[in-house]
Design a protein that fits this description.
Chain lengths: 225, 219
């Protein structure tokens, strides 16, 4: 068994196209998911019971049904009811809605990680709730939020490979396509795996950098100051 | 197009058959994954740099690549490399075990580091052998501590096992696809599959939460 480099070189343009789509999907879906997550998080912590229940139900459904099934439902079922969305849009939308549930939970965890007494003290000192959020909770919760968001982002980028199942032409889709054409599974899968590995390494490096910028507040949070 | 509830009901027996396969694969993978995780922990604590690096590389590789690629690798690439043919089910269990092993080794590590160091020192002072210290003192406590994350991992694996449908393991998703091909009604069948997944995973994650609360009470 030899490692055929020529196959990789021959299909480099496809691999690059797949890489582009994978990057596009994630750079769109991740921020949207985070913003949606903020919205869902405020709903989770709402004063109104009904809104809380709805948000909780949404989070539980998203977290307990595999992404593959969710994508299939949107991609195969909606056209039956006259709604037609392209595979790429479906993929980005599903990934964002799916990720929002996970982000909502960690944002909530981050807010709750700030000791309750501090909020009460700030309120006793007469700070407005906007200021409490911005000056007291936010700087401290980042130390909790960023590492957890990194983990979710990583599993998110990996999960985007599932979109190949609904013919989104991202990296994994091309790996299958090229393997089907050339029967060189080892070469292609190794290259694709290394590409994912590099994407994730760059992503976690970037997040580490962010974390370092907020390291002071992170430390203070841990000391309970 | 309207929604046919009788079809939803009639597809359920076939889907439940698929769901049992999903559960079977996930349980086997959790069990073998615990073995892999323990081996990895051993490799990381051995006083040999090379073996430490190998374990770290393995964990980084598994965590750094999508599960789907790993599944393809074990099903399509490995037979060519080693000259052995794996059945889809076996390939699926192997992939999920090796995958969850990397995650479980972190769980084990967190569990072990939660055991007070003084206990080990006391055991050493009493002259207990290393095997006894691990087998009788550390691991039994670790297992109680890691029961909640272990259940979480099982939930993750039930969801991840959906991907095994691509290598024709007839688990829940594949069973749903087969029913879909016969009936041409994706809405009912996929919804039934989603409900089944939800029930299984929700029960498991509720169990994990309950175990967590109890573990906290034990202290």
């Amino acid at each position: 068994m030899t490692f055929d480099v020529q196959v990789i070189i021959n299909h480099l343009s496809w691999i690059f196209h797949g890489l582009n789509i994978t990057l596009l999907i994630n750079s769109l879906a991740l921020p949207i998911a985070f913003i949606l997550g903020l919205v869902v998080c405020t709903a989770l912590m709402s004063r109104f019971k009904l809104i809380r229940y709805i948000a909780r139900a949404y989070v539980e459904v998203m977290r307990n049904v595999p992404l593959l099934i969710q994508i299939f439902i949107v991609f195969y079922v909606l056209p039956f009811y006259g709604v037609r969305i392209g595979p790429l849009e479906t993929g980005i939308g599903c990934l964002a809605v799916y990720g929002a549930a996970y982000f909502a939970e960690i944002i909530r965890g981050a807010i709750l990680s700030v000791p309750r007494g501090q909020v009460e003290a700030a309120r006793a000192l007469g700070l407005r709730s906007g200021k409490i959020m911005y000056k007291i909770i936010l700087p401290q919760m980042l130390g909790y939020l960023i590492p957890n968001a990194t983990n979710i982002g990583i599993s998110f980028i990996k999960e985007s490979s599932v979109l190949s199942m609904i013919t989104v032409t991202e990296l994994t889709f091309y790996s299958n396509y090229i393997i089907g054409k050339t029967y060189t599974a080892v070469e292609i899968l190794c290259v694709i795996a290394v590409i994912y590995w590099i994407i994730l390494a760059v992503f976690s490096f970037g997040m580490k950098f962010l974390e370092k910028r907020f390291v002071l507040s992170a430390k203070l949070g841990r000391m309970g100051i | 197009m309207n929604f046919d509830f009788s079809l939803l009901i009639s597809s359920i027996p076939l889907l439940i058959k698929g769901a049992t396969i999903s559960l079977e694969v996930s349980l086997l993978a959790t069990l073998f994954g615990m073995g892999v995780g323990l081996i990895l922990i051993g490799m990381r604590t051995v006083p040999l740099r090379l073996i430490n690096y190998m374990a770290a590389l393995y964990i980084s590789m598994v965590r750094g690549t999508p599960l789907l690629i790993q599944i393809f690798f074990f099903y399509y690439a490995l037979p060519g490399l080693l000259g052995i043919d794996l059945s889809p089910f076996i390939a699926g269990v192997i992939t999920l075990s090796l995958n969850s092993g990397a995650f479980l080794s972190e769980v084990f590590r967190a569990g072990i580091s939660a055991i007070p160091r003084a206990q080990v020192e006391a055991a050493q002072a009493l002259g207990l052998k290393k095997r006894i210290i691990w087998g009788r003192i550390i691991l039994p406590q670790v297992f109680i501590k890691i029961l909640p994350p272990l259940t979480n991992e099982l939930t993750m694996l039930v969801k991840a096992s959906a991907l095994l449908s691509v290598i024709t393991v007839v688990e829940l998703v594949k069973a749903a696809q087969e029913v879909m091909l016969q009936t041409f009604r994706p809405a009912e069948v996929l919804l039934a599959a989603a409900v089944l997944y939800f029930i299984i995973c929700f029960l498991l994650s509720s169990l994990a939460r309950r175990l967590e609360r109890r573990a906290r009470l034990i202290g």
